[in-house]
Each structure stands twice: as structure tokens, then as C-alpha cells.
Known about the structure:
Layout: H1 6-18, E1 23-26, E2 29-30, E3 33-34, H2 61-70, E4 75-79, E5 86-91, H3 97-108, E6 116-118, E7 124-129, E8 138-142, E9 145-148, E10 153-156, E11 168-169, H4 185-192, E12 213-214, H5 218-231, H6 236-250, E13 251-252, H7 257-268
Parallel strand pairs: 12-13
Antiparallel strand pairs: 1-4, 2-3, 4-10, 5-7, 5-9, 6-7, 6-11, 8-9
Amino acid sequence: MRAARRDELIEAALAYAGRGGRVFPVHSIRAGRCTCGKACGRDAGKHPRTRNGLTDATTDATIITPWWTWWPDANVAIATGTASGRWVLDVDPDHGGDDTLVELEHRHGALPETVTALTGGGGRHLFWTHPGHHVPTRTGIAPGIDVRGDGGYIVAPPSVHLSGKRYIWEIGFGPDEIVLAEAPGWLLGLVTAPAGTVGGGGRLRRDGTPLVIPDHTRNDTLMRLGCALRRYGVGELALVDCLHAINREHCRPPLEEDEVRKVAASVAR
């Protein structure tokens, strides 16, 4: 795929700054490697070019313009959180993010349309207005779902990913095409819940300790586990029995049987 040119990169950086997004340059990809010259793994093309990194993020064009003179192929990063008035839901399909989001929307209702970028790695960045209170930057709040909030940043179009593909705005969902939406209450509740309480029951533990599903995650976790079983071909009748057994053994306290049947019926549909 064609690499981004300096004029595209700097125009994008200045446009984001003009909308209040604090930007700064990060390393890019050249000949299949990070321009830092090191083996950066997943951080290739994503870590800061400037000395102070995220704290250098600015909306000042007189600072932004020289950056892309010094580093003409630098990728563009946008600081998230209060500083830029936005936060981002990072959905990684390689780790089940698309499935997780479908399950959450099935339970809580469809997310409103908002500004959305497609990452060079095949994922999505869903942008939301900052609510005015702390939104953490956290990884793995649910399978394949990360949050970039206060103290975080994302790489933005037209930057180049390690894969060689560019970050692009989803058609019809670019910042010039759609209004940045407010996240629904249930999503904000999910991302701001204390660490260790969000979706904790939804993951099978690898250390051999018993799975415990607390009351505030029971429906979501049973839905997620039910969808996983369904993908493995478990039939509807067996699915009901499985979810009843999981509820009985692992939910604290267990849901009412009628509620479990409703979850199973939703999964089957």
C-alpha cells in the first residue's frame, strides 16, 4: 500500500489540532521496520519521536509544523482524555473484540454511530466525547477491548501500520462526516469500573482457580460464554443446560432460572 506523504501527514495533524486534538509525532514504518531501528514488536510505528512523548502533545501549529519537517514520515498520534476532549474504544478482532462488542450490544443495545477509524492491523478505533470525569487508559477490559482515555493516545490516519497498511477513516464515519458521539451510560460504566471487576467472570482462568462471576457481570458473562459455546456448535437444548450449570456453580449469587433461560434464548437467536 502507498506510504503516506509528508503533506498528507502534516495536513492531518494540523486538522486534528484544529478540532482540539492534541497531537505529536510517533515513529513510522520504513521497509517493514520501525524507524527507531529496534525490534519493537507491537509498538512498531507507535512510540514517540519527541523527547517527552505524550506530554509534548499540542494544538499549536507553530510547534506541529517543524516536527514533520524534521521527521517527514512520522506517524500522527492524538492524545486521548481530558486534554483532547475525547476517548477511544480500541477493538481488536484478533483477540475476539468484534465478538465481545456484538455480545455487549446484544445485551445493552446498539452503540450510537460515532467517528470511527480502521487500523492498519484490522481493528477499529471508536471515538467518543470525553464525559468530563476520569476515563482510564486500560487494556483488556473485556476480550479484545482496550480503552484509550486519560494519559493515553492512539495512532491516527493516514499513519502506516507495521502490516504496511494505512490507518483510514471508515467510509461515512470520518471526523468531517459524522459528529463525535457521547458514549452510552452502560459503556462508560464498563470502562470506568474498578480494575478486576470488569468482565472478570467472563474469562476462564488459566491458573486453576475457580471461576467466580460477581452479580454485576452475571448476564454479560453468561451471554459471552453462551456465544462461545454456540460458536463451537453447541445446540440450543444443550446450551440451556450448560448455562444453568455455569450459573449454579459459578455465579455469586446465581441468577433466577427464568433469567438464565432468557440469556440462552438470546444466544440461540
